[in-house]
């Protein structure tokens, strides 16, 4: 039985390695194209990149679909690693708000039964003109 687990583990490791290699090859291809097409400037902060710093410039897919790589580069923009992280962080925050909108969810405590000023009007009326003198 341990042999099967080892074989399964080896197959899984191979699948993961192949997927990573495929992703890196695909990324390398569109990254090289984007770097040839666009100036080496971050599309958000405007920082310029050259030499070794060029590795900090990433390709962002505007529609967030990494398989959408048109030859004209219309789905790409170059972003520095900081702006790229910020862009994806903003998307995650927006998605979390979409999934947990307070207007969509009604919590148990949203129906307040305690009304602290409910008797205020009656109290004021019972005092009548007394308050007018103060």
Please give a structural write-up.
Pfam families: HNH. Residues 29-85 form the HNH nuclease domain. With 134 residues, the protein is mainly alpha-helical. It has one domain: His-Me finger endonuclease fold. It contains 3 helices and 2 strands; from the N terminus they run H-E-E-H-H. It has a two-stranded antiparallel sheet with strand order 1-2. It is elongated and about 85 Å long.
Structural class: mainly alpha
- Helix % is 40-55%
What is the N-to-C succession of helices and strands? HEEHH
**Secondary-structure arrangement, i.e. CATH architecture:** 3-Layer(aba) Sandwich
State the CATH topology.
His-Me finger endonuclease fold
> Given this structure, which CATH class is correct?
Alpha Beta
Strand line-up of the largest beta sheet: 1-2
Shape descriptor reads elongated
Short description:
This protein is mostly helical and 134 residues long. It has helices spanning 2-37, 81-99, 120-127; strands at residues 57-61, 76-80.
Supply the key terms.
134 residues; mainly alpha; His-Me finger endonuclease fold; 3 helices; 47% helix; 7% strand
Task: Give the helix/strand layout.
Elements: H1 2-37, E1 57-61, E2 76-80, H2 81-99, H3 120-127
Antiparallel strand pairs: 1-2
